[in-house]
Protein: Enoyl-CoA hydratase
Amino acid sequence: MNDSKPSAQLRITRRTPAYWRVTIDNPPINVMGPPMVRDFQHVIEAIEADEQVRVVVFDSAVDGYFLNHSDFNARFEDLTSMPNGPTGLPPWPDVLVRLTHAPVASIALIRGRATGNGSELTLACDMSFASREKTIISQWEAGVGLVAGGGPMARLPQLIGRNRALEVLLSSEDLSGDQAAAYGYVNRALPDAELDDFVEALALRISRFDKWALANTKRLVNTQLPPEVEIGAGWDTCMASIGREHAQQSIKALMAKGFHQPGDIEERLAYHIGQLGQ
Structure:
């Protein structure tokens, strides 16, 4: 069954009742603003409400971008005015925490840039598989005076170790698919030509298993997760960082060079961030 239900910027395709695809589709560069956050809320609500779904794969329809950074052209108030979700957290960290706890296997299929929000979605998923040739993953925020808001400070140290987490977060550098796999940031980096078939086979395999067994196995593994208060603290600091003059000036400087548009700034964001202070 291929029952595609479009939303503004996310698309749910039910490959089978037990196996869904969620495709991110906000061209030209898959930035995430308040409308996409609301779409993610609808997606997680659908996942939680469905008794048959066992596997959800997140992928992208936009060439070169899995999920990009936040939309800095959007009205800040449109995000901050959104009510907290069922976890008590603001909408974006709420979605990520609920995805991590949802009684399904969630998989990120990463092809292109997973920058900021894309990295945070990857960390919230249960598994992630990256294109060796086409993946770039980063938490770029510290390089412009921001603090990331979707929980990487809480999640990354447990996943890749404190020192490597600090390397990723403080350097604001881009990591290739192979680098991310070597660090344990993603499960595996595969040749791009093999990525789709590998994820499809894995998702179909898991989708045939008993949901009760899958959900309870995941629940017991989740006892090792960081407490949600750490995710919330990151979001609060992120919101405080956005109004700081250093961050505002850095974003303005990037905008003047073509930030938020297809081209060299977005494709080599880490390089251009490194030039800001020179």
In short: The CA atoms of residues 20 and 56 lie 5 Å apart. The chain has a mean pLDDT of 96. The longest helix spans residues 34-49. The domain at 3-273 is CATH 3.90.226.10 (2-enoyl-CoA Hydratase; Chain A, domain 1).
